[in-house]
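re: that chain from earlier
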Amino acid sequence: MGAEEIKAYINHLAVNQHVSSSTQNQALQAILYLYKKVLKKDVGWIEGLKGIKRVKHLPVVFSKKETIKIFEHLSDVTKLIVSLLYGGGLRLNEALTLRIKDIDFDYQQILIRDGKGEKDRHTILPVSIIPELKKYLNEVYKQHKTDLLKNKGETILPYALARKYPNAGKEFGWQYAFPANKFIKDKDSSLIYRWHIHESTIQRAVKEAISKAGIIKPGSPHTFRHSFATHLLENGYDIRTIQELLGHQSVKTTMIYTHVLNRGLGVKSPLD
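^ sequence. v structure.
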């Protein structure tokens, strides 16, 4: 089999299976990888593919009442992490990879480093969670000190900082704010360190909380970021401020939340 069979299958996904554009593209990339890396066969440029038009959906957003209900079924570190997603508009990965040194309690803000598009930005640290977050980080500090006594406690550093600052990995500020319970081994450096809590842990907890709250919306941890932006807009904050907090490159991306609120139309139903 070669290019013709690949084209037939990819078009079959579009015409007969009615898959999404991302599913079709994933299938194509997987097959091309198979031929290039595994079969060592060059199939060349495949022409005549029937692409699927990508549909832009409005994001799912929790109402303020729904958000409160969900939080009632969250606890401990999961609740803290989700509080950052909703209270500061963080992406899940941004919260999990957060380093302790980037939490500024005095200025009540969080520095997000290497966010989407490899950009740094500041966002809000919710005042209401500061006492609980400080208490939690104090426990992380004790755990870190215990790890150091066991000749562990060094974390992996981004880029080439480990060579530039050999002892920085042992400093408390560089530790992940939400470390995992177990250690893992880095393949390149053989360093045994604590990784951050896995994404699936938070995803499962949020899914369970949504179910217990009796909410039928297909929400996820990322829905809290959408809710953060929508509720700020609802509270009267300007779109440019929200854009900066979210780290969007273009205000057009942030404008989608005006559509969620239906503000762009300003139309009242005749039934009302």
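DSSP finds twelve helices and five strands in the chain.
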